[in-house]
Amino acid sequence: MSEANALTPLPEAMAEGAAAVEQILDEVLAAPQGHEARLFEAMRYASLDGGKRLRPFLTLECARLFDTPDSYSLRAGVAVELIHCYSLIHDDLPAMDDDDLRRGKPSCHIAFDEATAILAGDALQAIAFEILADSATHPDAEVRAALVKGLAIASGGNGMVGGQMIDLAAEHSDADVSTITRMQRLKTGALISFSCEAGAIVGRASDEARQALLHYANDLGLAFQIADDLLDVLGTAEDVGKATQKDEAAGKATFVSLLGVPEAQERAQLLIEQAIARLDMFGEKAAHLRAIANFVVKRRT
Amino acid sequence: MSEANALTPLPEAMAEGAAAVEQILDEVLAAPQGHEARLFEAMRYASLDGGKRLRPFLTLECARLFDTPDSYSLRAGVAVELIHCYSLIHDDLPAMDDDDLRRGKPSCHIAFDEATAILAGDALQAIAFEILADSATHPDAEVRAALVKGLAIASGGNGMVGGQMIDLAAEHSDADVSTITRMQRLKTGALISFSCEAGAIVGRASDEARQALLHYANDLGLAFQIADDLLDVLGTAEDVGKATQKDEAAGKATFVSLLGVPEAQERAQLLIEQAIARLDMFGEKAAHLRAIANFVVKRRT
Fold it and tell me: How far is Cα B102 from Cα B240, in angstroms, rounded to an integer?
């Protein structure tokens, strides 16, 4: 790639980004011969042909603000996406959220088996870091090491995994809005923030630009999660491609259960307006990042 | 540390290395406040106060061949150990090897619960890469990126996790010595090899020295596994700190079931002699690495 520029309509730009992500995933997940081929089948099953690739697209668009080659930011974005995919496999396991359906098809542990699903998640995490550390991602090792460190923090015990732990614990307790906010900032927010930060890292952004993108990402991530909770209540499984109304059935506190639908919608909208305002310094180049923000609260899946 | 030199007896040198590893683990696994504290408790439970720390000791001793500061190699070794600890948590899960006992105490999913154990393993993997990417591990980012890439490959789908997948698949098939050898080279060998390679990387070893250490590690890793299979047959749970005679009960092919006890013992001994011969170029500095090789086939736990 890429033919896309800031004037390309968002759907075309996202589709082009997703196709480029798919191609890199297909290459890095090439299956070896032997008994472990099944492992790579499961890794490919859970990673290829899936989703909007929002996270890599954020990396791509943030890096474009600094005129960074797409080849760098795409690989960084693919690493984030691989972490996202591994987390979905593990989250769906019977011992965790016990979800049989993901992106409209059987979850990895249903299509394969639990042991293979656990291992596929583990191997996807490893390959994410392998990609970041490879010189094809960036010629400067300082940049590669910064990417590794950032992704490890965002996805680990003080980030995504910690958020999932809070989520599991919160199912058994009376969680309030501040607990849910903190949980979501870790569980989904940390990785979305790093998607943007990765663009700033490969783009060698100034501190000011990096901070602006982090603020944008924080607001976006929270709005994204509120939109997700709203979808769980208002969407159907057919629309969403996974089971809905699970949160309520599980007696789980969410933004919607705590705030009600109208206030949750209003809060998401305010966060989006705030996110968009963070991008002022980037002018027209940030057109897609603004459009994504609006897309996130209006999506149906 | 460190007071140890090549003349310190192996048990003292290993105990000193293990104490230094323990201290770093204690620091990097400091628990945050909040609902995710339980996650860090599980990570600490599965990582602290456990085992001989063979892998970090290999990194330490290999790096000492090149007069590298222990502070670099210890952190690299701790990252390897964290990967090892995460793999034990996941291997013990009911869907995998279903082991209730590990290092003489309840496995992580027994002491906590399955969901917490899965997440603790995931977070331990992430922190291993975080440590390697941190500038405290080495001032040169090229070295840090090389460590990350090497550990990711050794522990991923083409390494440790791939080996575990072959192991699970082999339980249901007629595995021969060549399949078992390949499986073990991935499942345990890849990480043991990287333990030595990491010492060569932080020590900026010549290609020749690095190759010699890799050959040493390959032979050592296979001998280690044969010794493990022998322990499973000849040891008691009390000696070994985990259930024994599980392989036979599971109808699992091992070096011992395929070769018999005397030939397996002989093969391990030959591998150890070969491993020791690989170290000739390092002279007296490699005294501990030679002693480790002998220790590995004579250990009772």
Answer: 9
CB contacts of B118 in chain A (<8 Å) are 90, 93, 95-96, 118
Which backbone phi and psi does B233 adopt, to 5 degrees?
-85, -40
Contacts of A48 (CB under 8 A, 6+ apart): A22, A25, A26, A29
The two tokens of residue A17 are 């980004």
Q: Does B121 sit within 8 Å of A165, measured CB to CB?
A: no
**Interface pTM (ipTM) of the complex?**
0.94
pTM of the model: 0.94
Structural domains for chain A:
10-298 (1.10.600.10)
CB-closest option in B93, B113, B148 to A118: B93
Contact A130 B119 (CB under 8 A): no
List own/partner pairs for B273-279 with CB under 8 A and 24 or more apart: B274/B219, B275/B215, B275/B216, B275/B219, B275/B220, B275/B223, B276/B216, B278/B212, B278/B213, B278/B215, B278/B216, B278/B219, B279/B212, B279/B216
Which residue among B95, B144, B145 places its CB closest to the CB of A115?
B95
State pLDDT tens for residues B217-245: 999 999 999 998 898 888 765 555 566 66
Which residues sit opposite A105 in a β-bridge? Answer: A102
